[in-house]
Design a protein that fits this description.
The chain is mainly alpha-helical. The chain has one domain (2-117). It is built from four helices and no strands. Helix 2 runs antiparallel to helix 3 (76-96). The two termini are 49 Å apart. 2% of the residues are buried. The mean pLDDT is 87. The chain crosses the membrane at residues 45-68, 74-97.
Length: 118
C-alpha cells in the first residue's frame, strides 16, 4: 500500500508501465524480425537446393554425352574412363586446395553477412 502510494505520488507507476510496454513491444518486434530472417534463409536454402539439383543433372548428362562422344573413337570404356579421370583430377585438386577454398568461402560469407547488417 505504501509502495503504491509513493509510486503514484512520484508518478512512477506510468513510467514503469510505459517501460514494461516498451520492452514487451521490442521483444515482439525481435521475434517478428527473427521469423522474417528465418523465412528468407529457408527460401534461399530451398532455391539453392533446387538450383543445385538442376546443375547436378546438367553436369551428369553433359558428362555422359562427352563420354559417349569420346567413346566413339576410343571405345565406350575409354570415353567413360577419361570423363571419370577428369572428375578424379578435379576432386584431387579440390582436396589439395581445400584450405584455400574454405578460406575464400568463409571470407565471402562473412562479407555477405556484414553487408546484411548495414
Amino acid at each position: 500500500m505504501l509502495k503504491e502510494s509513493i509510486l503514484k505520488m512520484l508518478k512512477l507507476d506510468n513510467l514503469i508501465s510505459n517501460v514494461t510496454g516498451y520492452v514487451e513491444t521490442r521483444i515482439e518486434l525481435m521475434k517478428l524480425e527473427v521469423k522474417e530472417d528465418l523465412a528468407k534463409a529457408i527460401a534461399k536454402m530451398a532455391l539453392f537446393i533446387i538450383i543445385g539439383f538442376i546443375v547436378t543433372l546438367f553436369v551428369l548428362l553433359i558428362s555422359m554425352a562427352v563420354a559417349y562422344k569420346i567413346g566413339e573413337s576410343l571405345g565406350n570404356f575409354g570415353g567413360f574412363a577419361m570423363v571419370a579421370g577428369f572428375y578424379f583430377i578435379l576432386a584431387l585438386a579440390l582436396i589439395l586446395g581445400r584450405d584455400t577454398v574454405r578460406d575464400t568461402l568463409e571470407k565471402r560469407l562473412s562479407e555477405n553477412l556484414k553487408q546484411k547488417k548495414k
